Structures are given as structure tokens and as C-alpha cells.
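Before the break, one more example. Copy the sequence into your notebook; we will annotate it together after we see the structure.
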Amino acid sequence: DRTMAVDGTQSVGGGSSTYGSSNAAQQKATLNYDNFLQLLVAQMKNQDPTDPMDASEQMSQLASFSQVEQTIQTNTKLDTLLTSSSLTQASSYVGKYMESADGKTKGTVESVKVYSDGLIATLDNGGKILIQAGISISDSAPTNPSGDDSGSDNT
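Here is what the structure looks like once it is written out:
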């Protein structure tokens, strides 16, 4: 029976997938990766010489930790790309005329606030529109000189 005393270790928490958490998750994973290597070295130093550790199991564990670290780095890069894309998208709406999906809120976009799960446009009249499927966007407000609302059918 092999037993070994191990000091407290940090665990990787199930953090949220917001843009700001990637760096913290990467730092935690790096700490845990370093802790894993220290633990592996300690195991090797303190192993029973008559019953040594299985090298293939050690390599498998090391490979798993490497995959986790690479996945976190990939997610960090993806989060950066998504943030950049959201900012570019948000800036393209400023100055455009926008109408909400339900048609109740309309106006010219003065600013756009970027959240981790979407964009909200603030209009010149103070209204706010969640940018989602079904909204209408144009370069300027529609003009109807005849007063005819050809977009609706009142029959």
C-alpha cells in the first residue's frame, strides 16, 4: 500500500465563460500544472524502490494536464477574438437607424454597450434595443412623404 502525505492543493473551479475570466482560469491551470509537476517529482523521490511507479501512467497524466493547459490557452485566444469582433460590430451600429424586433422602439443609435452575452444599443431618444434576430437597421430613418405606411396591412 503506497501512501504519501500531500500538502493542500488548489482546484480548478468551474468559472463562467465571460471574457474576463479566461486569464484567471489560465493562471489557475498554470498553478495546478506546476503543482502537478511538483507532486510528480515528490512521488518519484518518495516511491517504494521495490514497487516503482508505472511510467506510462505518469506520461498519461502529464499528457492530460498538457491538453487542459492548451485548451485554456485556445479559449483565451478565442475570447479575445470574440471581444474584438463584438467591438467591431458594435461600432458599426453607431449612427444607424434601428428598429426593435417588435417595432415598438426605434431611433438612431448613439452608443452600443457590449456585454459578454450580447449588445445593447442606446438610441437618440433614450430607448434601448437588444441587438438580436429580427431587428431592422438602415443608414437613416425611413421617410414616408405621402404618410402611407406601406409596411403594414390594415385589411
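The two ends are 85 Å apart (CA to CA). DSSP finds two helices and five strands in the chain. Try to locate both features in your own notes.
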